[in-house]
UniProtKB/TrEMBL annotation:
Gene Ontology terms for molecular function: oxidoreductase activity, acting on the CH-NH group of donors, NAD or NADP as acceptor
Domain NAD(P)-binding: start-end pairs: 7-165
Gene3D superfamilies assigned to the protein according to its UniProt record, in alphabetical order: NAD(P)-binding Rossmann-like Domain
Protein name according to UniProt: NAD(P)H-binding protein
UniProt organism field: Paenibacillus sedimenti
A Pfam family hit: NAD_binding_10
Superkingdom of the source species: Bacteria
């Protein structure tokens, strides 16, 4: 497939590029700093990546970059950027909609706070104590819901460089809900207590960047199981939930 990665020098984007190349995809990197990209990829891999150096906020440049691509992975920006982050995602999504030769398969990055908490009608990002900037992911999710594109939003917890688990390890993948077991009694908690429960279990949501990248690359088909879904990832544990 022909895949374009926005934010290709970031922790997630660079891993998507490398794994995509190994899987035989035609990879395009949209970056603002080509030297950083080449330093990260190394000479051999860099020869096999099409590199576009341009302004991610320029609609024309983004639209032209999306032409004839089969999928776009948006790994640019972060929630702490506030309005800029929301504008980055909105611009790319808008150009995906407008570009007639783009097939419409899109992945964007969210966070575990976007996922439904079982037995409640809540998501973490709206709970007391969660950083307010995380709600920028909510806004990007709302933008996706307005489009007819075939999208998915990756919602990991804290991403780490390498798994601190013995191999083999089972990766639990969920749609819409948190990927860790939640006690049914949580429905009786106050919102503050629900937040406290989730904070106490944040480490269970740690997941390696490489596993996040692989999950996105493994699900690029149009109309697949993750179409228009939030996707959660966690390593399966034997922890007893009380």
């Amino acid at each position: 497939m022909r895949i374009i990665v926005f934010g290709a020098t970031g922790n997630t984007g660079k891993r998507v590029l490398v794994q995509g190349l190994k899987m035989g995809h035609e990879m395009t990197a949209f970056v603002r700093n080509s030297e950083k990209l080449y330093d990260q990829l190394g000479e051999h891999s860099a020869k096999h990546v099409k590199v576009i150096v341009d302004d991610i906020m320029d609609p024309v440049s983004v639209g032209e970059a999306l032409a004839h691509q089969d999928a776009a992975i948006i790994a640019a920006g972060h929630a702490g950027q506030g309005e800029e982050f929301v504008r980055i995602v909105d611009n790319i999504i808008s150009q995906c909609e407008f570009q007639p030769s783009f097939s419409g398969r899109v992945w964007i990055m969210g966070g575990a706070g976007l996922l439904d908490i079982p037995y409640t009608d809540l998501i973490g990002n709206n709970l007391p104590g969660f950083p307010p900037e995380y709600r920028n992911h909510n806004r990007n999710f709302e933008r996706l819901q307005q489009t007819e594109l075939d999208w998915s939003i990756m919602c990991p917890g804290t991403m780490i460089d390498s798994r601190e688990h013995p191999d083999p390890v089972h990766l639990n993948v969920t749609t819409e809900t948190l990927p860790v077991p939640i006690p049914e009694t949580i429905k009786e908690y106050s919102e503050a207590d629900i937040a406290g429960h989730l904070f106490s279990r944040l480490q269970e949501l740690n997941v390696a960047y490489d596993d996040v990248a692989k999950c996105m690359l493994d699900h690029l088909e149009l109309g697949g199981a993750f179409k228009r879904k939030r996707v959660g990832l966690a390593y399966q544990s034997n922890i007893t939930v009380r």
